[in-house]
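User: Continuing from earlier, I have the next pair ready.

Assistant: Great, send them over.

User: Here they are, in order.

Assistant: Folding the first of the pair now:
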Amino acid sequence: MQPHDPVTRQVLHPHPARKRNAVMSDLAVLLLSRRPGRRLLVAVDGVDGAGKTTFADDLAVALSSAGGAAGRQILRVGTDDFHHVRVVRHRRGRCSPEGFWLDSYNLDQFTEYVLAPLASGAAAFRDRGHDLSTDAVLDPEPVMAAKDAVVLIDGLFLHREELRHYWDFSVFLDVPFDVTAARMAARDGTGTGPRQAGVLTPGKDRYVGGQQLYFAAANPAARADLVLDNSRADTLRVINGSGAGYRKQG
């Protein structure tokens, strides 16, 4: 697919909001054209409550509909299955923004289990490393990955320096904190408690403060190949897209 073909222009160039299914379909076609015969690692980043998991799940369906089921294997991984154990996550204090940014995820385990084997072309990887509900460290049975699999990985902080070079394509979902607060309240059943109140006072809450530290350190919207406004359930709007982050063309 050439850089200026209609699908690429539609996906990567800023435009007014379009129907969610249409954007997903075009993005799926674009991704399936990349690295034929070779593995493709796709990151879906965004703040807590931006809709990363739902977006990646919907994109997996679109990839299958666009030809993935008959050709390339589609795999899903989430970094929520790679948290540090509780004592590490809270070692700077349960309300610490620095702790949320620096200690939430076991990046060494995530790299060992997922990124290193998938990036090297290995046939197997492990898709989970931690159970958040029990705080147990996991060593699951390997998952087999085809040599040309498309792997969709959703999670927080995916454009941080330690991870960014692994992605063949990356998406950042841009959603205001007040919108994500309402989503988290509905998702977690937490009403208007401290976590939601803190969303409206940036820098004073563990979660929002930690994410702002991430923005300052990594500028994920600038590093992503595609930035989408995911504020509404039925539409998506391209804020910025370059495709420049394809680091393993071919």
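And the other member of the pair:
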Amino acid sequence: MPRLPTPLTLPAGHARGDGQHDHGQNRDRADHAAGAGEPELGRRRRSPLRRGETATAWAFITPAVLIILGLSVIPVAWSVLLSFQASDLVTPSRWVGLDNYRALSQDPNFSQAVRNTLLYTVLYVPLSIGIGLALALVLNRRIRLVGLYRTLIFVPFVVSATAQGVLFSFILDPEFGAANSVLNTLGISPQGFLTDPGQALLVLVAISLWSGTGFCVVVCLAALQDVQPSLIEAARLDGAGRWQLLRHVTLPAMAPVSVFLLVWQTINALQVFDLVYVTTKGGPLGSTTVIVYFIWEQAFKNFTAGYGAAAAYVLAVALGLVTVGLRLVRGREQRRSARPVRLEGAGK
């Protein structure tokens, strides 16, 4: 049998070192290639992913953006331009500059609408908050059927102003209404109510109080239940009576809620429209014509849309001033309450 040739081999140490060196170089090359290619690969993978997420996000928010633009931003911008034009919404408009605003300052009907609105606001806002606070103080006690009483007081707030107007138009009808029937039974002469220029606006205030006080009751009741019992207990231990508790503990704790109610009710009072439209339509003799009804009448009844838009922006500026003023008052009160109280005899 022929003898096989002896294989040629390198020394053990040299062979092992070269192998490890080659293996290390190969591993370094692989690591370098992987490290160099990872950012590029990551960018390739992440870019389509990010574009997909961005497209999905825009697909979700685009309907809301279109609604906001279509129902608020664009109409506001268009009405601002309209207030400087003479337009009837049918024929081409004509630029008149500040003439609409000058005409408002000289219009006796607009002045009467401003007076009626201010009188309505001055009567409705403090009465609704005051009556609401008084009822909330009563309903904050542990009395029988208190849940039923709270529900009955809040129910009129849920009823729409249109339904309220129709209801009270029947009740206060001077000839066939139930109110004059009750007054006749009591021996009181019939009243004109909504047909009397001297009574119509006061009657509207009373109807608004019937419906709007429930909201104030709920808000005040929540604020009363949020007053810390420890403060009330400490004041009672110091000998404070019921009125002192109300004045020095309860009302200061309710200050933020009171400012909110004042702003909310003022804005609602300045924007009253539907109750006037259903009941009196601004009459009799313009005694219940408020600013918003005046705007509607000029824009959609007299077809002077530019004039109505100018009146609308006068109202918008008034609302902005009221809101800013009340916020400044609230900020000043908060800074005053945040100051440290210096006790008598301190530091002696």
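Worth noting for the second one:
The first helix runs from residue 12 to 82. Residues 113 and 290 are 5 Å apart (CA to CA).
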